[in-house]
Write a structure and sequence with these properties.
Two copies of one chain form a homodimer. With 279 residues, chain A is α/β, with parallel strands linked by helices. The first copy, chain A, has eleven helices and nine strands. Chain A has two domains: 171 residues, Rossmann fold (3-Layer(aba) Sandwich); 101 residues, 6-phosphogluconate dehydrogenase C-terminal like domain (6-phosphogluconate dehydrogenase C-terminal fold, Orthogonal Bundle). Chain A has a six-stranded parallel sheet, with helices on both faces. A three-stranded mixed sheet of chain A has the order 7-8-9, covered by helices on one side. Chains A and B meet through helix 7, helix 8, helix 9, helix 10 and helix 11 of A and helix 7, helix 8, helix 9, helix 10 and helix 11 of B.
Chain lengths: 279, 279
């Protein structure tokens, strides 16, 4: 698989890594990077994450056979709608962490020859920006794709093969189910890490060890990106939060009664799940 | 500083590491390991964490100038009381994660020549057992000591120098204040990691990435050890839990109203604390 030209919209950690990976794996002769920030484009060119740069979406996508939208989640729909008229037969995909309603939101504007397959590579870091981009970011990771219909078209299958060619394992999932799962496995953990950090007086930081460090690492993530994700998935994040608070209610009761055996069993239930994940 | 003989009671991750570090740094000619489990003692001898082994507390401590109690927190008082008659002029310290009331609990049984200085090295791992012991476990870490009086005796200063000689930076703190701080910086994070893991259906684990992995790592900790810690510090852990739930109440409200700007500010407050800690 090799595209003559790929366009990447939004050159941050993920967009930059798509560019690095696509070139490292020979998937594109040219990679156009599109970003409003000229310094970002310059850095991406220097790193070799893209081979051409532009701040103009229309110009950037018009020669592309594949457009990968790597903007924050609250920009994806606008970018797709703006790009469609300029690359009417292209393949489109994105990397947003929230998927419900995306495909439907652009369906009315999608040219008949264009194909959009929403995607979410489960890769990232607490650091953002093209400086942290890596050609192997997607290797051995899961990429979830959420097609509107159970049977994929040939064009959708090409997009799936692209994500596989970047090194990821593609899983097809219903968009709402994706969001329900991610609320628990990714979105709520970000909010929890933030809350743990926020209730800690800075003067107490010298009295932290590896446990606090690990538990709060993703509290350092970009607040603007994550506010958009949490807002977009607020229904399922609230459901996940209720489950967590129920769990804390049990914990509070066990503390109140000083029930050491009950606390041990409560901890065993968490350990069993975590042990199943491996180190 | 070199002791002729140190006794370590409880040869797990921490006890084994005290033995390895004390020998690596030439702090003891002989290190006696005391543990009820013969397989553990055998493993500790093989690793060189101890130079002699016994299952008998009285026999193990009687020649020691320094006794380091590395049992779970709910065993420390009993071990000290049992050891005192057999090493009446020794120095005693421990590694428990909860300090309030420990010194007072044994004061009536302490022989006049013996000195007990409660200690808590802020070092550990989600893995327990002597197999994970490391000679550098305490290097660059904080060890909190909680003397009963503001001015330390010469014997207490010797114990402080021992913890410094293991590589740690010693901080003197009030025992209750230690427990209040640790509830936030260590004990509650363990419960939170456990709760996050426990609410995750195992079938969803393939849809986790680094964020979940980091946030839940300490959910794999030993449930028996941690149940004892949480129960011993239940007053301050409940206070910390209330602060966390207040924080989640704000979060729930921001989700309910879809207030993206408010969510961003909420996340910024956590990020500021976490960024102050460094990577």
């Amino acid at each position: 698989m090799q595209f003559e030209q790929i366009a990447i919209v939004g050159i941050g950690l993920i967009g930059g890594s798509v560019g690095l990976a696509a070139q490292a794996r020979g998937l594109a002769r040219h990679v156009v990077g599109i970003d409003p920030n000229e310094a970002t484009l310059h850095a991406a060119l220097e790193r070799g994450a893209i081979s051409r740069a532009t701040t103009q979406l229309a110009e950037g996508v018009q020669q592309a056979q594949l457009v990968v939208v790597c903007t924050p989640v609250d920009r994806i729909v606008d970018v797709l709608r703006a790009a469609f008229p300029h690359a009417q037969a292209a393949l489109y995909t994105d990397v947003g962490s929230v998927k419900y309603g995306l495909a439907e939101a652009v369906e009315g504007q999608r040219p008949p020859e264009a194909t959009y397959l929403p995607a979410h590579p489960l890769a990232g870091a607490e650091k953002s920006g093209v400086a942290y981009a890596r050609a192997d970011l997607f290797a051995q990771r899961v990429t979830v794709v959420t097609p509107r219909r159970p049977n994929q078209t040939a064009a959708e299958q090409t997009i799936i093969r692209f994500w596989e060619a970047l090194g990821s394992h593609v899983v097809v999932m219903d968009a709402a189910e994706h969001d329900r799962v991610m609320a628990v496995t990714s979105h709520l953990p970000h909010a929890v890490a933030s809350a743990l950090a926020a209730i800690t007086p800075p003067a107490w930081l010298p009295f932290t060890a590896g446990g606090f460090r690990d538990s709060t690492r993703i509290a350092a993530s970009d607040p603007r990106l994550w506010a958009a994700i949490l807002a977009a998935n607020r229904h399922y994040v609230r459901c996940a939060l209720e489950a967590l608070i129920d769990r804390f209610t049990q914990f509070r009761q066990l503390l109140a009664t000083g029930d050491t055996a009950g606390l041990e069993q409560w901890l065993v239930e968490g350990k069993q799940v975590r042990d199943a994940l491996g180190t």
